[in-house]
Write a structure and sequence with these properties.
Blueprint (H helix, E strand, L loop, with lengths): L1 H25 L10 E4 L1 H7 L1 H34 L8 H53 L4 E4 L10 H10 L11 E2 L1 H10 L1 H4 L2
Helix pairs in contact: 2-6, 3-4, 4-6
Length: about 200
């Protein structure tokens, strides 16, 4: 009886050992080489490259010119309105000045509606153009460094002053990476490549 018990015990141990070995063999190799992953702060590259700084300066100059034109029309319209008191309503001079005043007021209203849209459109077109270049440069750098994946590591800066800033941030910067440690940060290299091609990008 004791002999049979010993034999059965040995067989059970052998089965357990064999099953355990097969289980270990089936497990994935968790000690394999680590994947090389990169990150890029797209918003940092967009805003800190020399081309964007130059573009922003040019756009600000255009906006100042727009504001100056609006102020001129507003001043001229007010002067015409004040001058109407010096003429009789049924005189030709009164009608001429009234017509000129209405024309300037219409021009002012049109500029006040069009100018902000024009500035927003320029910024969106510039952002799209530069974003495409950032993608192209990122792909080249990733290939050079044998990276298998590059993630966007942007943090939105709250609060937003204008809706167009919020819209562009939600479109391009959705804060995809909440934490990273040991990833290759390509941001500074992307900015350096953008700076090299500043003249090609234009304003």
């Amino acid at each position: 009886m004791k002999f049979k018990t010993m034999v059965l015990g040995c067989l059970a141990c052998a089965i357990i050992l064999a099953t355990g070995y097969e289980y270990l063999q089936a497990q994935p190799n968790v000690t394999g080489p680590a994947l090389k992953i990169g990150i890029v702060s797209v918003s940092t590259a967009l805003h800190k490259c020399k081309a964007t700084i130059k573009f922003t300066e040019g756009l600000r100059a255009e906006q100042d010119k727009m504001i100056s034109e609006e102020n001129t029309l507003a001043t001229e319209g007010k002067a015409l309105a004040d001058s109407l008191r010096a003429f009789k309503p049924d005189s030709s001079e009164y009608m001429e000045r009234l017509q000129e005043m209405v024309r300037k007021q219409s021009e002012l209203k049109a500029l006040q509606e069009i100018n902000p849209r024009r500035s927003t459109l320029k910024k969106m077109q510039w952002t799209e153009k530069l974003y495409k270049e950032i993608l192209r440069i990122t792909k080249e750098l990733a290939a050079e460094k044998d990276l298998v994946l590059v993630l966007g590591a942007d943090e939105p800066e709250f609060p937003f002053q204008r809706y167009d800033e919020l819209a562009m941030t939600l479109t391009l910067s959705t804060h995809k990476v909440l934490y990273h440690n040991g990833c290759v940060d390509l941001t500074s290299e992307v900015i350096a490549q953008l700076d090299k091609m500043q003249s090609q990008l234009g304003m």
